[in-house]
From TrEMBL:
The lineage of its organism: Bacteria, Pseudomonadati, Planctomycetota, Planctomycetia, Pirellulales. This is 3-oxo-5-alpha-steroid 4-dehydrogenase. Keywords: Membrane, Transmembrane, Transmembrane helix. It holds the Pfam family DUF1295. One of its GO terms (cellular component) is membrane. InterPro entries: UstE-like. The chain crosses the membrane at residues 6-28, 60-79, 100-124, 136-155, 187-205. PANTHER family: 3-OXO-5-ALPHA-STEROID 4-DEHYDROGENASE, STEROID 5-ALPHA REDUCTASE C-TERMINAL DOMAIN-CONTAINING PROTEIN.
Length: 259
C-alpha cells in the first residue's frame, strides 16, 4: 500500500470519527438518535472531499458523484424526518438501556455507522488517492451504473413520499411505478450507486480488493438493515403485504407475477 493511500485512509478515518462524535452530541441535545440517518449521506461526502484534499493528483469525478448522491439522500431524509418523533429502532434501544443509552448509542449506533461508512467508502478513497491513467470506458460504465442507481433511489423515494401523502387507506401497499417491479427500488438504487462508484474507482486505479466496500453495502441492504428488517415490520403491519410479496421481486427488478 502506497504512503499516500495510507495517509488518505487515516485522514478519512480521523475526520469521520470526529464527524460522528459531533453528530452524537447533536443527538444528545435533540434527544433524538435519528439524526444519524440524516448524517449518513453527508458522511460519505465528507470522506470524499477529505480524500481529495489529502491527495496530490485527485480527479474530481468521484467526489462530485459522491456529493450529488449524498446531498440528495441526506436532504430527503431531513425533509422526511422533520417534525417526526425518533425512529422506532432508537426508541426501543432507549427504552431498553435507559440512562445508559447515550453511551451505548455512541458505540453501537454512531461509532459503528462511522466504521461502516469508512469501509463502504474504501473504493472512493482509493480511487481518489491512486495515481494511474484513467480507463475512460470503465469510468463511463461506472457513471452510467451510478446514474441508474440514483434514478431508482430518487424516483423510488419520491413515489413513496407521494403515495404516503395521498393514500386514503393507512394499510394500503404501494405497488405502482418502480414499486411494481421491485419491493425496494430505493435499496436497489443504493446497491447500483455503490457498485457504480466502485467501477469509477477501478477506472482511476483503485485496487480490486476495495470491492469489500460495495460488497459490505450489498449485504447490509439485502440481509441486515435493509430489506430483511423492513420486510419483517411491513409484513406485521400491512395485511395486504403478503400478496404484494407473492407477485413482486424483493430486490432486483423484474416483471410482476400476475395472478
Amino acid at each position: 500500500m502506497s504512503t499516500e493511500l495510507s495517509e488518505v485512509f487515516l485522514s478519512s478515518a480521523s475526520v469521520i470519527a470526529g464527524f460522528m462524535t459531533l453528530v452524537w452530541v447533536v443527538s444528545l441535545w435533540r434527544k433524538d438518535a435519528s439524526v444519524v440517518d440524516v448524517a449518513w449521506g453527508l458522511g460519505f461526502v465528507l470522506i470524499s472531499w477529505t480524500s481529495f484534499g489529502v491527495s496530490q493528483h485527485a480527479s474530481l469525478l468521484l467526489p462530485l458523484l459522491t456529493t450529488l448522491w449524498g446531498v440528495r439522500l441526506s436532504g430527503y431524509l431531513a425533509w422526511r424526518n422533520h417534525g417526526k418523533e425518533e425512529d422506532y429502532r432508537y426508541r426501543e434501544m432507549r427504552d431498553h438501556w435507559g440512562a445508559a443509552f447515550p453511551w451505548v448509542s455512541l458505540v453501537t449506533v454512531f461509532a459503528l455507522q462511522g466504521f461502516v461508512m469508512w469501509v463502504v467508502s474504501l473504493p472512493i478513497q482509493a480511487g481518489i488517492a491512486t495515481e494511474a491513467p484513467p480507463m475512460i470506458w470503465l469510468a463511463i460504465l461506472g457513471t452510467a451504473v451510478w446514474a441508474t442507481g440514483v434514478f431508482f433511489e430518487a424516483v423510488g423515494d419520491w413515489q413513496l413520499a407521494h403515495f404516503r401523502a395521498t393514500r386514503a387507506d393507512e394499510n394500503a401497499v404501494l405497488d405502482r411505478g418502480l414499486w411494481r417491479y421491485t419491493r425496494h427500488p430505493n435499496y436497489f438504487g443504493d446497491f447500483l450507486v455503490w457498485w457504480g462508484l466502485y467501477l469509477v474507482a477501478l477506472a482511476h486505479g483503485a485496487p480490486w480488493w476495495t470491492a469489500v466496500g460495495p460488497a459490505a453495502m450489498s449485504v447490509f441492504l439485502m440481509k441486515v438493515s435493509g430489506v430483511t428488517l423492513l420486510e419483517k415490520s411491513l409484513s406485521q403491519k400491512k395485511p395486504g403485504y403478503a400478496d404484494y410479496v407473492a407477485r413482486t421481486n424483493a430486490f432486483f427488478p423484474g416483471m410482476p407475477q400476475e395472478k
